# Entry
Amino acid sequence: MARVLVLHTGGTLMMSKADGGELLPDAFGRDLLAELPILGRAADVSARILFNLDSGDMQPSHWVELARAVHGAVLDDSVDGVVVIHGTDTMAYSASAVALLLGPLTKPVVFTGAQRPLVEVRTDARQNLVDAVFAATLPVPEVGIAFASRVVRGARSMKRDAWALAAFDSPNCPPLVELGVDVGIGPHVRPPAAILAPFDGRIEPRVLAVRVFPGLDPALVQGALRVGVKGLVLEAYGTGNLPHLAGSLIPALEVARAQDVPVLVVSQCPRGFVDMSRYAGGAAAAEAGAISGGDMTREAAIAKVMVGLARLGPGPALRAWLERDVVGERTT
# Structure
């Protein structure tokens, strides 16, 4: 029987309601097999507590701690797969960061959580947890998110709905696994590859993401550069268009280039990709040194800039790393 390690980080799945009705992190004192005996039929399950946080409090330092624990589990011959219980609000950020911190994998690493706590009668937690443990036994050596009978690629995921049980989507990448009457594994699942060792936990958290909008004052972006921002992710219009006449952001990008601050451009649109040659604003941004993020999500883009800056520093090597696919986070 496959052996699956469950790493608990917190989130709604294991929360309980306070007297005021708000959901709060609960003690992770329950035996998962006592709560869900069916798990024992899917795998030989063991559990470990890393932290017990509402995911809104998750920080890059937690990503590193989590990635280090996963790295150790992947290298452990007694573990066949890993499940990470995590809050939904920042799960896509953590899954992207862990994927990029670890690189290629030999075993599945499956994030999951819930919109309603496990202790409630009507909850999605039971099925999501069963699906995640089952998915961690499949030949899918990637970081994924198991939610609503699907496993999507972690570095392509985004939380799309705050209320529906199908909370996650992967707009530019089909699911890795479809868990219906039968189990369908996508042909695009990445092949196993030796994990990088030793673990490299370097990350640069001084990265700013800015959503471009009509009326955005370029001085605010330049102000961020003055106070020590080391990397910028711009969520541009459509295919990477930026204002270049009134309210032009191009001078701010030129300042960023002069300060060796990389600027990665992604699209505000969930579907599609950045083509900075399509419109004058995008072309001007590229001329000023901005880097196309292709079809990356903002979550993956933020994590990739943080990891890349810490490991490579600013310069051509970082640009090349941002422009290429590392763990399936981009295809363009």
Notes: The domain at 207-323 is CATH 3.40.50.40 (Rossmann fold). Residues 60-75 form the longest helix (16 residues).
